[in-house]
Amino acid sequence: MGLLPNVFITKKYSATDPRYMLKSAKKLFDIRDPVHGTIQFTSLEKRIIDHPYIQRLRYIHQLGFVFFVYPGATHDRFSHALGAMHIAGRLWGQIVNSSRDFLLGYMTMADIEYLGKIVRLAGLLHDSGHGPFSHTSEELLPQLKTLDVPREWYGASIKSNERATHEDYSVMVIASLARGKNAPISIVEAQDIASLVHHRIKPSEEWNRRFSRALKKKFIVHDVVQSFVSGDLDCDRMDYLMRDAHHTGVPYGFYDIDRLISALSLISLSATGGIAQSSSRGEVHVALDYTGIRAFEDFLLARYHMLLQVYFHKTANCFDYFLKQAFIVGELSYAIPAMMEKFAHLRDSSIFEKLFFAAQNPKNVWSRRLISRTPATLVFSTSMLREGKRKELDKKLLLRKIIFVCAKKGVVPIIVSSAQHLYRSPAKKRSGAKLFVVKRVMGEDFYEPIEKYSNLLQKYNEEINLFDAYILKEDYPKVASGLKKLLVGYQQKALGT
Fold first, then answer.
1. Are 60 and 76 in contact (CB under 8 A)?
2. CATH number for the domain including 205?
3. What residues make up the domain containing 189?
4. Which of 190, 405, 422, 495 has the smallest number of CB atoms closer than 10 Å to its CB?
């Protein structure tokens, strides 16, 4: 089995098992996972897992510099990839188990099994294009037009100055797995997998032919399946919340995944007078039984609290900024190659070695701050102060005032920002990915979009605008008195005092 520990041939599962799509495999393999327990995979999945392009993910940290704050957060994107594959299989397996007869009205059993294979592989490969330090290094990515990707897969034309993203690199990895004499997947399968990972990639002509009957009946199969891989309720988020919580040691990322998955099914709806009603000829949507709504809301809250406590942690954000500056000013000479063979050799360790070397030069201040773990001083955070009565105070205005106060002393503050939503309802044109709640009253079923049914979403699903303002430690004494006057005054006004 190569680098995979604790793997052995195991039993087949019956067609009623959520992992039914594995039933046709001659051999199944097990691997132990600290989050999900035992994860099963097929011989085909094993070949891809063992591939050097995927084994590379063992050497990419899942959370970048978060391990500077939470020492246990040294887990990698490889384990996350396995977990996402596992959950993707569970999601599709639940849909099949809850809506088997429904599905067979639109497609064959062979089509259902094909979708099971593709969605699991999409879960496995969704983050395969992450470079060293993941999102931090994205500013080093080259122009998309230079990337070794099949141009014909892209639904829209590639702009001449368009920068590649890690999703584009995932497409490159997936396409590479379909090349060569012993390629584990075909070029058609590769395109279909890539289309679930990257919203700009269109599925293959074979996909369109295979599911043309479903499309004529208003079942947009691609949107439904894609929502399990790259949506708001997807295998990516469902895994990393629990995995990151486990390794950081915080309790916030856990939720009832079993209850959440078991409440899912497919429904066909048409709108009459603005009210969704069951219809055999209506649009097909993913549905959540009302008994699973609390598990869904716990999932959203887990994301919210992990965002504040882990993903937007003040110290980790600060070190991410330092690394970006080290790249920008030239302390580190580093480029992300556009060819797969060279990209496959990149590791987090390669950047760390450059950082340790650069830090030996007293002039390389950003590298030295990183290696010595010397963060900047946090002077303001949107999560630090309560707004009280004046909830709508303009934070952007406050930010401009912070910059102005610092500028008078010749100091440039460090600003790190992020904008998030608890949940984004899919665009109308992607109606197949819209999540409905099925509520039951006196034996009758009623259907309502999740954002209208959930009290949590109705009250709190506004854009979450976060920003932290830092001052380098050597500059802090210059601006401390001016910032104190500004920020204390701001808080007093916010509280109406």
1. yes
2. 1.10.3210.10
3. 1-249
4. 495
